Fold this sequence. Notes:
The chain is mostly helical and 58 residues long. It has one helix spanning 5-47. 74% of the residues lie in helices and 0% in strands. Residues 35-58 are annotated as: Disordered.
Amino acid sequence: MKTNWWPRFKASFHRNFMDFLKIFAAEDEFINKHKRKSSMISEQERYGKDDGKKNAPN
């Protein structure tokens, strides 16, 4: 086995680990960014859209 495997392993591991953390952070940001919007959509589906106008009988 070569004697210089450890520096290459550390560099490769660091690069792969940082890529994993970036992906995880992006997914978390996406989920949190759209959490309020998705809850508003589900409330609109449940209760109907409130555009400020009263539904007057015709």
